[in-house]
UniProtKB/TrEMBL annotation:
PANTHER family assigned to the protein according to its UniProt record, in alphabetical order: 4-DIPHOSPHOCYTIDYL-2-C-METHYL-D-ERYTHRITOL KINASE, CHLOROPLASTIC (PTHR43527:SF2)
Gene: ispE
Residues annotated as domain GHMP kinase C-terminal: 215-272
GO molecular function terms listed in the Swiss-Prot or TrEMBL record: 4-(cytidine 5'-diphospho)-2-C-methyl-D-erythritol kinase activity
Name this protein carries in UniProt: 4-diphosphocytidyl-2-C-methyl-D-erythritol kinase
Enzymatic class: transferase
Pfam family for this entry, one: GHMP_kinases_N
Catalytic activity: 4-CDP-2-C-methyl-D-erythritol + ATP = 4-CDP-2-C-methyl-D-erythritol 2-phosphate + ADP + H(+)
EC number of the protein: 2.7.1.148
Protein's job: Catalyzes the phosphorylation of the position 2 hydroxy group of 4-diphosphocytidyl-2C-methyl-D-erythritol.
Pathway(s) it belongs to: Isoprenoid biosynthesis; isopentenyl diphosphate biosynthesis via DXP pathway; isopentenyl diphosphate from 1-deoxy-D-xylulose 5-phosphate: step 3/6
Homology family: Belongs to the GHMP kinase family. IspE subfamily.
Family matches, as InterPro entries: GHMP_kinase_C_dom, GHMP_kinase_C_sf, GHMP_kinase_N_dom, IspE, Ribosomal_Su5_D2-typ_SF, Ribsml_uS5_D2-typ_fold_subgr
Ranges where the GHMP kinase N-terminal domain occurs: 66-144
Length: 290
């Protein structure tokens, strides 16, 4: 059996440009990946099948165009495998519509897992190139390392000398449709017409670099979904939380802390008053020791 981890994706910063003629928005984002997420397993079989358990599994079963099976079919087609087979199992932890790239992470893990199961031995950069056919965030999720993501998401640049970060992830158990938030962004007369650079990577320590950035979609999500604003406010009141920001188009928000112990304690304090929220301390993996 082959096992793969699908790490939750965190947009540490996110700048968004005006919609392009092809319908996509250009983005410029610093991205890190958590040590928390979904888990997939792959076993040999004569045909492709997918079994799902956990967070939102019932909803996913009812949807057409599952990204996991799409990834499997695209990989098989690129490799010339006429009758692909695999028994795929997904243990879902990442909430749907949470801004954590769960579907993209699952598709990326599928590419990596089937690459191993089928004995292809393709390098990650080949898989990342193929991943752009599946979804905008999938190339970044294939690599699952600190990176800068540009274009519509298909242009990725790994970050060097980036530390691991101690984070608290908070989701208020509400799904936020990505299209709705981008539509609000597009109709906002106050938004900047031309995308600005996200941050200067040479401007200082990682936390300072992140704090100097922003998420262009955050005001629109917080204005449209009151619980997102509530989460941001609650995180902002926790001792040592800096910076506090939303990831992706919402609804998950995060705060960074100086230590893992501080993040865990902050999560404990927050959970005492918000029993219905998903509150998850996490380490955002780096390329060096924090």
């Amino acid at each position: 059996m082959i096992r793969e981890f699908a790490a939750a994706k965190i947009n540490l910063t996110l700048r968004v440009g005006p919609v392009r003629p092809d319908g996509y928005h250009p983005v410029d984002s610093l991205v890190a990946f958590a040590d928390w997420g979904d888990r997939l397993s792959f076993e040999p079989a004569e045909t492709l099948s997918l079994d799902m358990t956990g967070e939102g599994a019932d909803i996913l079963r009812a949807e057409d165009g599952n990204l996991i099976l799409k990834a499997a079919e695209i990989l098989a087609g690129a490799a010339g495998i006429v009758e692909p087979g695999a028994r795929i199992r997904l243990e879902k932890s990442i909430p749907l519509g949470s801004g954590l790239g769960g579907g993209s992470a699952d598709a990326a893990a599928t590419l990596r897992g089937l690459n191993r199961l089928w004995g292809m031995d393709w390098p990650d950069d080949m898989l990342a190139g193929l991943a752009a056919e599946i979804g905008s965030d999938v190339p970044a999720c294939v690599l699952s390392r600190p990176l800068r993501m540009r274009g519509r998401g298909e242009i990725v640049e790994l970050l060097e000398h980036w530390p691991a970060l101690n984070a608290l992830l908070v989701n208020p158990r509400v799904s936020v449709p990505t299209g709705r938030i981008f539509a609000l962004y597009d109709t906002d007369p106050q938004r900047i017409g031309v995308m600005q650079n996200p941050v200067c990577l040479a401007s200082g320590p990682a936390v300072a670099v992140i704090a100097s950035g922003r998420n262009d979609l955050q005001p629109h999500a917080a204005g449209a979904v009151g619980l997102v604003a509530d989460v941001l406010a609650a995180l902002g009141e926790l001792p040592g939380a800096h910076p506090v920001r939303m990831t992706g188009s919402g609804s998950t928000c995060f705060a960074l802390f100086e230590s893992q112990a501080a993040a865990v304690e902050a999560g404990r304090q927050l959970a005492a008053g918000h029993a219905g929220w998903l509150i998850q301390p996490a380490t955002l993996g780096g390329t060096e020791t924090a």
